[in-house]
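**C-alpha cells**
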Amino acid sequence: MKHPHAFFRFIFLLALLLVPAIHAAELTQNRDPESGLLAWKKVDRGFSLELIQLLPEYVAALYSSRNLPPAVVDSMRGYCVFGSVVQNQSGGTLDYRVADWRVVTPDGKQHRLKTKPEWVAEWKTLGSDFGWSILPATASFDTGDWAQGFTTVKLPPGSHFDLLYAWRHHGKRYRGKMENLVCAPDKPPLAP
C-alpha cells in the first residue's frame, strides 16, 4: 500500500460520519389495532422511554375499582394520562428525575409534570394513601432494570405537546425530546 496514512485517515473520517447515526435516537409510534390508541417509544444512549395513551374513562375506572374516595378519582380529571415504561438499556447505571422533565405546548410554553410525591401528598388530604400507580419520581437502576407507572400531563384530551426529558449516565446529563405527542381522546377512537 503506497499511502497507509491515507487509508487510516479515510477510515477515521468514515467512523466520524457514522457516529451521529449510531447515537441518533428515533421516535417510534404505534397504534393499537384493537383500541386505536397510540404509543410512542424512544431509545437514546441506553435510556428507553415509552408512553402509551390511556383513556380518561379507563383511568377513572381503575381508580374507582380500588374503592378510592370520589375526590381522588376526580383529581385526575383535567390531566391526560400515559402508561409509562422507563428502561435502562445502557450497559451501566443510569438515573432520572421526573421533576426535570417538561411538557412544551404548541404556544412554546414549558410546563412541569406533577410528580408522584405531589400526587401522594394531594391524595392524603383527600383521605387516601394511594401512589403505586404513578411513575416513580426518581429512579437509579442497572442495565435491564425498569420502572413503570402513570405520567400525568395537565392538558385536556386530544391536546398535542412535546416532552423534554433528561437522565444521567456515568455522571453525565443527557436530554431527549419526544415530539408530536397527543393526549388520548375523551372517548375511544373508532377502530381502524
Observations:
- Residues 167 and 174 are 5 Å apart (CA to CA).
